[in-house]
Amino acid sequence: RQAQYAALRDKPCVTRDGEEVQLHLNAGLLVDLPHIQETGAAGIGLFRTELQFMVAAAFPRTAEQYRLYQAVLDAAGDRPVTFRTLDVGGDKVLPYMRVVEEENPALGWRAIRLGLDRPGLLRSQMRALLRAASGRSLKMMFPMVSAIDEFDAAKALLEGELTYLRRHGHTLPERIDVGAMVEVPALLFQLDELFQRADFVSVGSNDLVQFLYAADRGNNFVADRFDAISVPVLRALRNIVRKAHAYDKPVTLCGELGSKPIGALALVALGFRALSLSPSAVGPVKSMLLELDAGAATRLMDDLLDNHAPKISVREELAAFAAEA
Ligand code: PEP
Ligand code: MG
């Protein structure tokens, strides 16, 4: 199997009916970087910057962040990297940060909420990213955006850092794309406003599914109770893809849903043409996609979502479709 996947590495990821699907990697530490070459991935679709903060003994200084981001961009070369700003809080605790007691940490003071309330932290990270990407392309996205003004406020901080660096004579990135994670259900109803501002979006299906079903992703009693490959989740995702196409903006998905072949099949059927996966998922997902008739999968998916029969399992229908092909 491994050898079989390795042989696929340099093959373009194109479905049987000619649809190109970009497979990117989820990463977060230096040790992840060799996977880019090993898998032949199109880039890094999600760089989880909080990992550096989680393994450190104290807040990493701007210079340390800068060195990591530069190493990541160097390793990626011409391939794009999407950096996600700090997603701490909730279950991602920093040992050196004062713990805030919260009854519902997943719904609490985390990610962009914490970043906007502690702008020094977010600005230091933005400065490190802007400097690391000097003269190259920078893609930055904000986690757990729930309201449009959070996106605007984060972008304003970024503008402030740009002004500062410009004034001090630094070479800026030659291009900056600013995006948002779609992982809080409230954003599903503000997609027009979001796409009017964001250069791209990336769906965080781990959190989005947790919040759509109100089922803690880390609690074994409920985590598997609801299937992500189900009508409500898939309708939400289809709507995001349609909006992205209407605004002509890139859309990708970086949650675990894309890391299983059946999940990736569902996503391509919904219209996703870029996914970000765990490195070990690239081989299995790619070998499935090379055999897929994406057009037929989309027709089946639309039929399942538009003529919903509660007794029919979308997962089983997709699995049967994959087995027939
Ligand atoms: C997600 O929520 O799907 C996601 C990619 O982010 P994380 O798993 O880091 O919360
Ligand atoms: Mg998330």
Automatic annotation (TrEMBL):
<protein>
    <recommendedName>
        <fullName>phosphoenolpyruvate--protein phosphotransferase</fullName>
    </recommendedName>
</protein>
<comment type="similarity">
    <text>Belongs to the PEP-utilizing enzyme family.</text>
</comment>
